[in-house]
User: Fold these one by one.
Assistant:
Number 1:
Amino acid sequence: MAIVCTDVYKKYRSHEALKGMSFTIEEDKITGLIGRNGAGKSTLLKILAGHLRSTSGEVLLYGEQPFNNLKVSSNLVFVEDTMSFSPIFKLDEIFQIAKDFYPNWQDDLARKLLEYADISDKNYHHKLSKGQKSTFNLIYGLATRCKITLLDEPMNGMDEAIRSDMYRAILKEYITFPRTIIISSHHLQEIEHLIEDVLLINQGQVTLHAPLEDVKGLLVKLVGNSEMINEWINSSEIYYEKNSQINGEAIVETTSITSLKNELIAKGITIQPISASEVCKYLTSQRKGGIDDVFK
Amino acid sequence: MMSLNSLTTSQVLWKQVKWKCKAFSQSFITLIGILIVIQLLGWNGSGSSGGGSNQFSVYIHFYSLDMTFIITCIWAFIQSLLMQGRIQQQDDYSIVTNRIVCNVSNSIVVTIYCFIATLIAIASFYISVLFYRLFSGIDLIRNELLFNPVEVIVTFLLILLVAASGFFIGSAFHFSKMFGIGVIVLFVVLLNLTPLGIANVIKFLFNGGDLLLMLKALVGSILIFGLSTLMLNRNEVTRR
């Protein structure tokens, strides 16, 4: 196993960011770390990168705890928004420094990608725009070819065109040199084509850790008369509901309706598949009703 | 399949020292600039006295390293304080590092910088005296050796001791702002509690000859660098 987390807690004064998080990530897999704002995604990645210490629990990367560990640091790259480099160096010089520190550094690739993104290597990192900074950070992270690559919202600020190109660059790089990659994002649909596993976290806990294909089939949408849906489905199994005489909706687990499928169809209730992104949204939702309920 | 990289502490330390020496090199421009201004304004610790009788008169101009030394000390203090700042240390986490390597490499860079600064300070002194000799026609009488290695080492170690103090205060502020303020308050209180304050510290340092002074400055610097490294060894990285 590349990453093993056992009962990890992280407390910031009175706020508990991680609450007993346990999971394992296999070697050379791309995992999507999904969660809402404040779910604990960045905190988890910072602990994995050795930037933060867990309050309790055990974190192991290839059998080594990451905090203050030079071996982990030389095999891990953590790409985030706030990544910074010495302001005296041009991008070209930053690449030269990286070449010195990372044995697998791909200088040619880094320069080609930078040229493709239309960023001059004579620029300074602190003078780049937000999108250019994110692009550079991602290029830097990919070119290091570290065994563990952590990407925290790597596409923040990038425009649509470069965003899809960069996703493709990640995939191509991964195919050439498979490595353990974790990409955090609020938007699962954006990285669906890239990831193999989904690690869904909510309020500091792991809600779901499964292959993307399994996540896709986890929930279904029932559309039809609300009263009729409620007649068949136990309310505790409903993740989301919209009451209406004709077009009522309910999101339920696929397994809970397997035996009722024919009866529901016979009663005029339609069963619709929902995307993995929507599954994650409903699994982390705090209430059964939507925003409309607020205005009632 | 890729294998895991394994870099030794000494390898990473050397690589960090190499790029950090370059990263902070612009600070020498500041030092040289200040020293030039000091020399041009004549605030270089030089002075003159004169007297005479019927047949002859004597004017003695004396040149000393004092002001240049003080300026270099202030520069070294500020430079090492800034080097231990949170923002500077964040850059380290974009490359291979751990806390010990980061702080030890900073200490080595400060030491190298102090040595270069010592040479700059001494050179600026010699250059200014040379200019006086060339343009004013005053004959020079050196009261010691023209180039005294002991003087160079003592100057370097004293600058290093001041830089180490800046390093410690920078580390204290990096650790926690409140702790940094606490260290300064404690330092001021301790100086005021002891009779004669800072004079006692200077007396302690200079009491006992050059060799003892060098030893005190060297051990003091190593202790302060070590303490700073230890203080930040469990510190978490917060990038903003």
Number 2:
Amino acid sequence: MRARTLTLVLVAALFGFPLALLLDLSLHPEGTGLARPTRALLMDAAFENYAEALRRMGDFPRLFANTMVITTLSIAGQLFVCSFAGFAFARLSFRGRDALFLAVLTTMLVPDHVASVPRFLLFRSLGLVDTWYPLILPTVLGGAPFFIFLFRQAFASLGDELGEAARMDGASPLRAYWHVFLPLVRPMLGTVAIFTFLATWNDFWAPLLYVMSPEKRTLTLALAGFSRTFSTSVEHLMAASAVVLAPCLIVYFLAQNVFLRAVRVAAKKS
Amino acid sequence: MVEDAALRSWPTLQGLARDFEQRHGVQVKLVDLGGAAGTKDKLKFLLAGDVPLDLARIDVTELAAYLADGALVDLQFYFDADADWRAGEWFTGPLDACRDRAGRLVGLPSTFTPYVMYVNRSLLARDGIELPQPGWTWADMERIARAATRDLDGDGRIDARDQWGISITQWLQALAPWVWQAGADFLDDNGEHATLDSPQFVEVLTFLHRLLHVDRVASNDATFASQMEQGLFQAGRCALYGPVGYWETYRFASLPFDWDVVPLPRHRHEATAVAMSVYVVPRTAREPELAYQFLREVLGGEAYQRRMAEIGNGVPGLVSAARSSAFLDPNRQPASEHVFLDVLRSARFLPPSANWGKLESVVQAELEGVLLSGSLDPAAAARAMDQKADEHLARVHARAARPRLSRAALPLSIALALLAFAAVARTRAPRGGAGLRSEARAARWMLLPWAIGFIAFLLAPMAVSLTLSFTEWSPLRPLSDARFAGLDNWQRLASDPTFATSLRATALYVVCAVPLQLAAAFALALLLRRGGRGTGVARTLCYVPAIVSPVIVAAVWRGLLRESDGPVNRFLGGLGIEGPGWLTDPAWVVPSFVVLSVWTCGAQMLVFLAALQSVDSTLEDAARVDGAGAWARTRYIIVPALAPVILFNLLTGAIAAAQVFAQPYVMTGGGPGDASRFLVLYLYEAGFRHLEFGYASALAWVLALLLAALALALLLFARRYVPHAFGAAGARGGRV
């Protein structure tokens, strides 16, 4: 047991170190960075780094709001589209069901980038370059075969009696979906929401290609620009990183339990 | 117009734009393009994306590429009609560099700067070394560099902690002065063939290679200096620094020692190169005439040009502004600012006959092999560079002879994709019956959004991508001008050494990272499975890295893995091991990314953890009673129970790993050499930096095919171990 505790501490330290370093560096006065011992922080932690980093990133409230809007829309859309499809695959009978579901599973193995060049053409021909549509639409529409799969498994695991009961009451499939089935897969909704949040919040490729105007930028994009600017000091970069990271951590801590439970369900099913 | 707001000329530009608005009754929108991809790439995305744009500033070395694709408005017509236009008010060389091959003006110079040499006078005086004299030569430079190189810490070798003779910059434009001084050149007069294997060119490479890697009096720290590091020259531990332009004077303004600029040393000839940006009007401009007026009145106006000189942006293109006190400010370092004007008589531009950005990327691996790592023989590298450049040029010139792509090709491929989808959707309903009609109708509606997305963003693009892979097309041209290239893109893949390196790096990364990630995740899950004090905290710490944005991961690890003073190497140093240059040594850069991937194995760990909780514990207890050890229990109970989950993690892990992009993009940009130019990064560069949509499509398909093969192999392999291999659908669902 001793050995286990020791391993535990060692592993935690190993995995925690880089983020500890991030936090540590973000609080050193500009230009002192790696050379300055951490204990000096006790005397004078440079909290002003945060204010300065936010100022230099550009219009921070705007960036934050942009990222929030994009993320929220992506989550809402993804929940609807994936649960719809999952429900249809799990509980409805129609021509082409199994073949289409196989298509969904196969797309899980297709690298997204095979479509990146024509997608650019598509958005260009629609006049949507330098808008948020290219950031949201592919995520929302059909972008997540894994979530469709999760929803299908979740809906399929609910007993046949439920469907029978709903049909007896004369409920249409859509009503049954909304009133009977959806409330029962709430943990799955939570999981998909969280995963979509993390994926969209941290997405780099789509903003990099499609967002040009400063007033439309996202946090990750601003951060990447920040880290490439010649005059950025490592302390400010780390402070900005900490700020961009914070919402992800908050969401994780708030939703930790939903998260674990739903992943458990998913693991059982796969 | 677009600009980079980080430029110090931004506020001035804003003010002048407001004036212009009042005078002409129009609105001028200034867009800050400084951002993640750098202004250069972003501008390309804007133009390729058909976003209307009236004015832009581009690098003069990119002019040829834009001109070749017909992406710029010919301004000669406006200049001819302009009564106030006098070409004589401008520096001739820079102005002529703004012309196309027919001599027609397509833009005006912003600021420019000839390449010069920076000198640390304090250091030379202290060590009793002569200062560079007018007309100094390569031999003089070598002597000074030799004398100034000192082993400060006395460990018997010259490294990052010592004093160096010279720090040499190494991008293509900075290489040009040496080449021209030696009497060599990059291309022949028509720009049709490379001349990189001429004896004089080899002489240049040999000379620099000797200073850098044989005599070790020259450092290539300038190539590595990121925002994290102060260059050797700034640290006062380097006597000479160059060839560089005017831009450094601003960064060096507050250095605590006496420094100055001198002309570059001469060899057979006196020569220097010029860096410059040019204001141009893109073809997507909605108001080309107003754009021209803005160009002439504001950007080409005395007030703005003087202001640019005052704030030290470079030498203004207008002669009067350059000769004024705004530029030759006696109160400002360097003392010999006039050097920038003096060297103009021997200054040359890279001719507008080639796409220099592309050419540089074509020969980059060899160039870095000679200068950066020193591992290649200069003569052999020159031959290889010459051959690669020739192949590139031949491809460019072959374009005109290619037939146009049929207009029907793309619609046809989209139609085929739709047909395929329809065929799948019409297959027989499960369990023989068609189900209730109301059910089928509901299902159609519920699947509609997914189907639209699936077709619009995946299926049709894949078909289009396949068609494009047989074409040659730059998105700056209209689609009707796409050329049919047959199998050329695919053949080029087979012979492209950068692709080969990229493929090797990606394969190595996938093969190392995925199993290690999986093993780490599995071990962690076993360790953290049972509760107990501190387990929650440990779980969180292990998981959190997985939710950190790759951009942040890259930023943190770049600090951790720094060669000279990063925590990792300091730790290794404490153990008596000399840490490698993680991100600067071609042999270590892929392993560095593998380490990163293991750090972010949290998602897989979580899946294992969840799956472990559903393993039947009675089975394990029974085994324990029977005397099975921990290893046996893991091997014979847990692993078989988790087999489907392991397979799932393996597949998704491999697919994610094969598409790694953000981390190498931010951390190394693909370097050193091509060592970390992973497939998707190469695809990004080919498609969106060099705008070769055809080649990029072929790359994308290769990636998809390779992954499909890998997935198939894994699934076939897994069939023997996993009872219901993931992906074998057909599971029966319930019914409403």
Number 3:
Amino acid sequence: MPSRILVCDDEIHILRAVSMKLRKSGFSVETCNNGEDGWNCALHFAPDAIVTDYQMPVLNGLELCQRVRAHETMRDIPVFLLTARGFELDHEEMKSRYLVSQVIVKPFSPRDLVSAIQKHLDQLDALRGPADSPQT
Amino acid sequence: MIPASSFYVPILTTSAACAIGTAAAVYFRLHSAEAAVYALLGCLLCGGVTCGFLRQQLLLARQRIRSPEFSKGHRNSGPQGLFQPLLDEFHALTNTLQADLESKDQACSELELRSRIRLKTAQRLEHALQCVGHAVVVTDTNGELQYCNRDFLTLYQATDGDENIDIDQIEPLTSLLRKTSTRLAATNMRQTEFDHSCDGEMVRYRATSNSLVVDGTLQSIATVIRDIRDQRKQQSRHAEFVSAVCHELKTPMASIRAYIELLLDEDVEEPEEQRELFTFIETQVDRLTRLVNNMLNLTRIESGVIEIQRQDCELNDVINKAMDVTQAPADEKRIVCHRSLSGLFMPIHIDRDLFGQALINLLSNAVKYTLDEGTIDVKSRVDGQRALIVIHDTGMGIPAESLPHIFDRFYRVPENKSVAPGTGLGLSLVHYIVTELHNGTIEVESEVGQGTRFLLTVPLGHQNARVKKHNQQVAID
């Protein structure tokens, strides 16, 4: 069963490029253009990983990440934060305080993003054991 | 020395004659009273002649003293007279005294002149220190107050003549002065920043202390305290601007980067889809170009690189020309443009190019966000001392929550982003041109689905722009 990836970004072309790359790599993808829709989608889609933009209307990426970390079943899934304000964000604080798995600075390589997602999923699989691991 | 022949001779002669006469009178009295009388008469005659002679000499001396030649120091011509030696002595003495007085007068004049020059210098310095616009304080080596200007008194809310300012109680200063005096070997200038309450607001100040060292000895420390809130605001605005610029540049670049990678990795197989991505990349590059050009334009205007050239214009003429520029794009969308301009002559003093650009930006937005077959109404009229311009379209309108941000840099109404391309700098530029450069005002009213109204005012006639800055009126030509 392919891994499920939720992608949230208010920039339609980023959404399109990332989702195309992920689907090409064998992932199942859902997209949303704001954090609130992203959260509602996550509740029924039950993603294995989330890729979210930092600045979005209604609910931003950090707030979405906080909700995910507070959720019983989703709290361990990798969350990747996309942002154009790379130098203004403290990456370590994002990781330690908001439990973001990785900060991706725009412009970025979709190829590298897919590799990072795969790597985190493999690490999660290793922690969980063979019975719980999804397969791409 | 007075020669004996000049003064004593007649006295001695007279005395001798009196003595001889008296002796003869006494002798002859013993033998003959008549002879005695003759002797006495002889004495009196000699005495009278002598007195007359002396009187004549005194008169002569007085005459000589009063003559112009005497005051000029020249030796009198003519008979010298009995008192001439005395006069010469007196003359020499007066010359010496006069020279002395003259030199003392000169010295007094010089001192007075120097004193006036120093007073003027002190007055100029005092005036300069009062006008410098920053708080200035001078302290001695013990940290005691020696001088402060009015701005310093105002800063610490003291009144003129208040000698009770205790520098020791002003902590940021105390510490700075202590370090300045004790660490002189390292540097004779130190700086610190601190917050201080001013009119109920915490304001950031920067204090810079400079030591006055003479022959290796510290004499005093002069400290200047500057209000740096404007500088901080400017730095903050600049940082925000740079951050916003980077964000605006990175966003299209991210899309371009992502699509290029997809194309290179051959993730996009359909030729139509490939073409679509290439087209998108092309439009994004155009967007980036417009963005850079608009940013450059805005910063050049704001920083004064573009020189503002004001001239007397007629407002309706400027409006008509702006509307002519945007007529073609309006015609393409079959948007009807109405002109309801005042019949009055409305003179304004503006930079024609910049103000015209502002109007073009507003009209272009109206065309951009008005659907096909909509209308755009432009009106002008006199409103007291100002001219009023109204640009009203029947376009998409702006949501209420976006209205407060409509003039912010890079702000674009989220709902309207997909309708037309834009950089988010157009209205920011309009706002700056109208309010900062032309002392005008601009307001916006809008309702989603109903349209938008921009209301501009600009001063009528030839009025210098006046910008209020911290309660000081600064005239800008």
Number 4:
Amino acid sequence: MIVLGIESSCDETAAALVVNGSRILSSEVASQIAVHHRYGGVVPELASRKHMEAIVPVVKAAFKTSGVRYGEIGGIAVTQGPGLTGSLLVGFSFVKSFAFALNLPMVGVNHLEGHINSLFLGTNPPPFPFVALLASGGHTSIYHVRSYTEITQMGQTRDDAAGEAFDKVAKMLGLGYPGGVVIDRLARTGDPGRIVFPRTFLDKSTFDFSFSGLKTAVKRHVQKTGNKYEDQIPDIVAGFQESVVDVLSYKVIRAAKEMRCDHLALVGGVAANSRLRERVEQDAALQGLQVHIPSLDLCGDNAAMIAAAGYHYLIDGNQSDMTEDVYSRLPRF
Amino acid sequence: MIRFTTYSLDETHALGQRIGKSFSNAMVIALTGDLGCGKTALVQGIAKGLDISDDYYITSPTYTFINEYPGRYPLFHVDLYRVEHSDDLENIGFDEILMDDAIVAVEWADKLPKDFLKEHLHVCFETLDDTCRKITITPRGSKAVEVIDQLKSMKEIKWD
């Protein structure tokens, strides 16, 4: 079955056509990174209005690229939350009317479950059960995944997301956007042991995270160092990155051990970080665990992952009706 | 105006909780201060004071712009860090939530055009050292003044 997926929870408007939750026929992302960069910072004119402008062209592009006709799709999946209500509503309302017009089933998908389903779109999908770390600009959480649709959250950040810490540190050092990419590159030229920032493990038995204190520690270091900090930038970012990576790697491996899983996965934008990949691969190998990471283009927000997640709901007979609404936040568990 | 000094994150959190408890009307809280000064920590306390369930973590809204939580009053936690132009306020739906009967906590409120907010509490943070913060709350409008009076009447509250 071919499923059309739509994603509009944050900055990206995306549409994709995916067969059986595993093979991508097309995946279009109208990214607003170009818009951000023009102003030299993380930012502007994104959100709802941009989604409204982008949604129809992006859906048309997904059909055109794949050569699929409307009559060939079996259902539609759309991100229902969490995210910005106004942005989510653009995708969700579009899908309601599209599904109604074509008389197709639709299903609302949790954005975070979408990220986990990005693993099944590649050549190395993990076998169930496994543990997944989702780290991105907006989220940092650990999940126990028993099937495509049985996903339990084990922990999440209590304040900032890991990717947000990367962006904010890059901005305070004047390094530009996107922060994760810049820091990843610069950190290779720095010494991660020269400036040691705190690692916030919280209680070591919890799978929750906290990155707000680390961000503040980097800020205080820069303030105390004065103008000299500019010469230290590679060491600062290497030290910062190592602190994030230490905590993420420790927690995801502990989660896999606790759940007796032999496989673990990294998903979300921060999974593109080369040091995190390297470190988790090393630590996992020592424990006899196998690591699965989606291809780089599927780490960021995209609609193929939403189509993949939605496919599994639809074949189980789960669908949303026209009275459903989007949600901004969900309780933790 | 009322001024506090907090000596730890926990104290900032506790102050937020008392502010949250003191609300008996819809209110906008404008938060200003540098990165890492404790704005989100204060909002976490406010959420607690609004009886928002512990099952919700109050996480940074930097990416999503606006996070909503159900409580004694609904809480909209807004972050304008990524907003550069006043046009964007409409794009993220900020105008709409100001019309709701809710508590609206706005981080990086200094990005708003001057006099954009009518009745509100302005909470200004200054970083004194690694853990110590000076927090100054200035009311604008009669309902905001009532919140300050309510805070001053709380026995457990000590101000500078």
